[in-house]
Amino acid sequence: MTAGAPALRTALRDAALSALVAFGLFVALIGLKLVPTDQGMTLQTRPWALAAIVVAVFVGRLALLGWRAWRPPGTAAPGRIAEGLTHAGRLVGPVFLLAALTLPLYGGRYMIDVGILVLTYVMLGWGLNIVVGLAGLLDLGYVAFYAVGAYSYALMAATFHLGFWTALPIAGLLAACWGVMLGFPVLRLRGDYLAIVTLAFGEIIRVVLINWTTLTGGPNGISDIPRPTLFGLRFVGSGDPDTFASFFHLEYSVTQRFVFLYYVILALALLTNWVSLRLRRLPLGRAWEALREDEIACRALGINVTITKLTAFAMGALFGGLAGAFFATRQGFVSPESFTFIESALVLSIVVLGGLGSQLGVALAALVMIGGSELFRDFDEYRMLIFGLALVIMMVLRPRGLIAGRTPSVALGKRREIAAELVAQGRG
Amino acid sequence: MTAPLLRLSGVTAYYGAIQALKGVDLEVHQGEIVTLIGANGAGKSTLMMTICGTPRARDGRIEYDGTDITRLPTHEIMRRGLAQAPEGRRIFPRMSVQENLLMGAHGRTGPHAAASAEEVFALFPRLKERLEQRGGTLSGGEQQMLAIGRALMSRPRLLLLDEPSLGLAPLVVRQIFGAIRDLNRATGLTVLLVEQNAYQALRLANRGYVLVNGAITMAGGGAELLARPEIRAAYLEGGH
Predict the structure, then answer these.
(1) CATH class for the domain made up of A93-397
(2) What angle do CA B24, B26, B28 make, to 5 degrees?
(3) What is the ipTM of this complex?
(4) Do B95 and A283 touch (CB under 8 A)?
(5) B93 vs A286: CB contact, 8 Å cut-off?
């Protein structure tokens, strides 16, 4: 480094200050520990653990400052990575799709199980992306539609003995109806106020599910939900002629059902993606985006804001409901516990982390967040810590999400090809 | 004279308990440029928005092309041949110039919209150069051109312009006013222009109205109003 002594002194002072803050933060959290003994509790001090953290913060801060000084001016490193990501988007998409399609070939049962989970959240993320990312309506109660879909399917299957494939679209439509029902009262609300009402809506649905015991079974939920079938072929090992294994003269294994479920959710997620991408190119999708940008301008241009908002809620809810129905059939059991606010928060953070409005970004974020938290299952109590830390780091480095650029959805006449990074930076 | 394209009679509007318009009478005839001038807070923009239905007129009647539009929903009013370039431009900042333009085309795409776009480009060639650029990165003048161009995409009969000169350099203002005049002469487009820049607006307009505290206090030909001493004193002193 050629910056000289003054720069070094500033860096040292900065690092010392950070260390002091770390000391203040952790002196009680890490430095002290309550240990149960025969006489009750005694306070144990842990000076070494505290010292280690303070030193780590000091060194870390110094290293960060050094890295910043060393980096050539004019090249914001995080931005460059992002540009690369946006640029590589066209390649990354197909590669991921191929990996997803062939996962059952190389992944074991555990991998497939995690894949089902990740894809469920990818689908939820893409669904919520319509509402939050495209239409710009902050929805904190998205889990409500997930719950409506799950319970609709569970009740239809239990009461009317409808099969999965009949009940699935009905569950989706019911959820879409609830989307419109939520949409009506909140038509005039925006931003914070909308967020609070949707948050309340999510809670209302959950509380109703808990308390309407005659219909929903209350906290006990609904069990024995039938599994999906492939054109009437069941995935059981009974040896009956109408099972998948005997029809294809295969030896029965549980994995067959998991592979089937995996492909079902993959198809549903891809359907969500396809519909969102198609809609974005239609006038309705553009109206959603215009609504996100400026509602008053939309009115001035003769766009029916009511219809635009309600369709966004309905479409988002539809896919939430479909994902919910899938969730119910996969678990074979639903209870209100699965539909708490943390689920809404998780899906919303997937959307925000992925970059509002970016399909690939949402998929990547779901993979990182859901797959990642499965990966850290062994660390158990530190999972949420790592999770939170990852979110904070992401928001510092990439405040607009993993893939922040948006490509124009339309071209007048001849489409002019344009480098992705120029669009992202708005030069064009 | 034939029936006016737009006629307001006794229109009042309120924001809560505050009366913003106190019985406005105003007429715009086919092919005219009419300007509405007034000080800050006189109710100019409110009048513009009331024509579009937000806020809704409490009393009085607004007629467009012989039909009563007073109680119609905003999006239906805007589909009858009115278009507005709202105050403060309000372009869609993260959408490209061409997406912005398409938003003005009432959901139409394809050759129809492309033809409208070509007409806009003929008027503002700068927009064609910046087709793929995001709206928010345009300069103020370009954004105003985009706002007007977006309104023209629906091929309106009546264009409502709310303070197109806001925050722009005099040269750019002249350019934009020149474009409005050209458009009016070439296509016979009727324009209702709300302005604080009284000098430029009255020079451009065939007729003008002066709005003070929510009521029309003066009306007359553009040149005639410009010559009046009270107008000069109230709106033109201190340069233009």
Answers:
(1) mainly alpha
(2) 155
(3) 0.89
(4) no
(5) no
